[in-house]
Design goal:
This protein is about 35% helix and about 20% strand. It has 7 helices and 7 strands, in the order βαβααβααββββαα. Helix 1 (about 45-55) packs parallel to helix 3 (about 75-85).
């Protein structure tokens, strides 16, 4: 990985649009939305951009719930660098719940390697069995940014750049899952 500094260098193919798109009342806008507006995401590139933008904007925290840390979204150099920059901030807290650590272990993953190196701020756990059946994906940053996908099997979902009420509601659910989750032996081996 490149050297990390306070600014995240993002390759041109992974940069978001810089101009927000106005939306008619009651409708979803494409990514990136006006702050507070919900963006419908229907392309894999939109999912990647939303995850990257939310991670780059985070100052304190990141909570991620994913089946296998979808490599096309979460194992990309720009996102890994943004996670590393966040993890090195004072009092940062990054929590990642992985439903299927065996898949991640078999394939290898940059986020897992980063968590091994920055284990004081990045924690990986496997959800309690009662939370392993779903296919949804959730990313919450700073209790305000939110990316939600009903299933990781399709490139569909929605995101908010800034929606603290909805983000905190989803984060409460994540906190319950986190409190019941335990370190997985397969993920623990990566920390040795």
């Amino acid at each position: 990985m490149k050297s990390l500094d306070a600014s995240v260098r993002v390759p041109p193919e992974e940069r978001s649009l810089t101009q927000p798109v106005a939306q008619p009342a009651g409708e979803s806008a494409p990514w990136p939305p006006v702050p507070g507006a919900r963006a419908s995401l229907s392309r894999c590139d939109d999912i990647r951009r939303a995850a990257l933008d939310l991670t780059c904007a985070a100052q304190r925290s990141l909570a991620l719930f994913s089946a296998a840390l979808e490599p096309a979204v979460f194992d990309r150099p720009a996102l890994l660098e943004a996670v590393a920059v966040l993890a090195r901030r004072r009092r940062a807290r990054l929590r990642i719940l992985v439903r299927d650590p065996r898949y991640v272990m078999a394939r290898g993953h940059g986020l897992v390697e980063l968590a091994r190196r920055l284990s004081t701020t990045i924690e990986l756990r496997r959800p309690h069995p009662r939370h392993r059946d779903g296919t949804e994906q959730l990313l919450v940053t700073d209790e305000a940014g939110l990316l939600f996908r009903p299933t990781e099997l399709r490139c569909e979902g929605w995101a908010f750049l800034y929606a603290p009420v909805e983000a905190r509601r989803r984060l409460r659910f994540f906190d319950v899952m986190w409190s019941l989750a335990e370190p997985d032996p397969e993920l623990q081996r990566l920390y040795l």
